[in-house]
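PROTEIN–LIGAND DATA SHEET

This sheet pairs a single protein chain with one bound small molecule, NAP, given as SMILES. Inputs appear in the order they were entered. The predicted three-dimensional arrangement of chain and ligand is reported afterwards as a token string under its own label.
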Amino acid sequence: MDKKVIIITGSTRGLGLAMARQFLSLGHNVVLNGRTEDSLQQASDKLSDFKEQFTYMTGSVADPHTHENLVKTAISHFSHLDIWINNAGIPQEYDYLLNVPDQTIIDITQTNITGVILGTKKALSHFTTQNSGSIWNLNGFGSDGDMKPRLTVYGTTKKAVDYFTRALYKEIKDLYTWLTIGTINPGMVNTDFLIKSLEGQDEKTIEQNMAFNNIFASDPYDVARKIVPQILSAGQGFHQLRYMTLPMVLTRLYKARKILKNMD
Ligand SMILES: NC(=O)c1ccc[n+]([C@@H]2O[C@H](COP(=O)([O-])OP(=O)(O)OC[C@H]3O[C@@H](n4cnc5c(N)ncnc54)[C@H](OP(=O)(O)O)[C@@H]3O)[C@@H](O)[C@H]2O)c1
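PREDICTION REPORTED AS:
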């Protein structure tokens, strides 16, 4: 098997950790990332069955040095780098713009937009030295243009990620014909992220959203089992990976018809 080396930003928990485990279980090597040594230690403990296959690098994706250090770590440990996944992202607690603290807006935009642009730039710069490589950015609510009150800041960041990835592909497709680049839309995933986004809502809204989450949110390991093989097999050019298909949505709606009937 051709062993790949993959950098996954924001892989201490949630979808990033699930994708890391899936790559490792298929025999590949992974560089994990998160903001604190503590969270990376905890993630490492969870992946202890694969301890020879991964390493990690601490740092925020909002800091360009983190991306530089991620490349250096991949090369020094595994001697090459094949796939870069800009997964790190932070949610918005449901709220009106005037109630969202300035620092929260800065943190969300710096992680979800600046982090993705800096990560993509670093990955591309490294991949041009070897004329091969694959870059993936995480879409989410807002990427398709959907709008929902009190999720405006987060939705804006995910629309930006989608725009950035498409626009960049258009910019470079004739220059770097060997490149694989794309977006991943995981649908709603049962992670800390979803719980955090519910903070700040009134009881009724929490109840309704929990019911909605119970119907539509997927297990991160189910998402990773479907998405990781698609990442590994994607050829050159632009790709849009999506976990939830229309038949899956319809099946879940059908199964939840009684719950939905009782929701006003
Ligand atoms: N969950 C969903 O329903 C959903 C739906 C659509 C799209 N997504 C997208 O999927 C991605 C993963 O989401 P998730 O649900 O797995 O989230 P999660 O469980 O909250 O995990 C987020 C990860 O990002 C890391 N992180 C946050 N800010 C960072 C920063 N500035 N620098 C480096 N790492 C950072 C966290 O690590 P530390 O805290 O240890 O730093 C953690 O490992 C995000 O881009 C999200 O927007 C999620």
